[in-house]
Amino acid sequence: MAYFNHAIRGDQLDLAHLEPLPLTFYVRNLGRDLTIDVKFSNHCFTVDFDATIHDETLLIMDHKRRRAYDLERHTLSRNLPGMIASLPAAAVYLTPSDRNYVYLANFQAADKQLYPMYFHLRRAHPEAPRNLSMFVESAYPVMDRNEVMKGTTKISFAVLCAKVYKGEPVKPLARR
Questions:
Q1: Which residue of 44, 122, 155, 162 has the fewest C-beta atoms within 10 A of its own C-beta?
Q2: Which superkingdom (predicted)?
């Protein structure tokens, strides 16, 4: 069965590109390969449901939260597997919440909008076939780079993976 199985107005959504996927790459700091189990949230193709602008046929539940299907997010989400594949050579940023990371790929959406991908990363369960688990919380277009980058701390994705794998803390820069 598909990871996501949603129909909008009777049409089945094509979400095959958001099926869970493995990412394996060599981490020099560890001297070994790490494999990451990558999963995606429905926030990659939905927005907060607003009854004043969304009709019930767009409703998609996220546990107990009401979300609405969004064509723009869905279309942009087709870029996510490629963005995931480019992470091993990329820098990511610890968000001010110290919970998530953001990856801002060299990719622009329509009208010069940026397309940041927010995710969290943790060590996988000891019996899991993967070393780490990544959950892509959301990805959506924004106009203002400063809005995305404010208060973030840059870190190499490979260094981040090594730290998470070894159980080391990832420390933000001092807050000003």
A1: 122
A2: Bacteria
Tell me the whole-structure pTM to 2 decimals. 0.92
DSSP per-residue string spanning the chain: --S---EETTEEP--GGGS-EEEEEEETTTTEEEEEEEEE-GGGSEEE--TTT--GGGEEEETTEEEEE-HHHHHHHTTHHHHHHHGGG-EEEE-TTSS-EEEEEEEE-GGG-EEEEEEEEEEPPTTSSSSEEEEEEEE--BS-HHHHHTT-EEEEHHHHHHHHHHT---PPPPP-
Name the residue ranges covered by the structural domains of the chain. 22-166
Burial 81-110 (b: 16+ CB within 10 A, else e): bebbeebbeeebbbbeeeebbbbbbeeebe
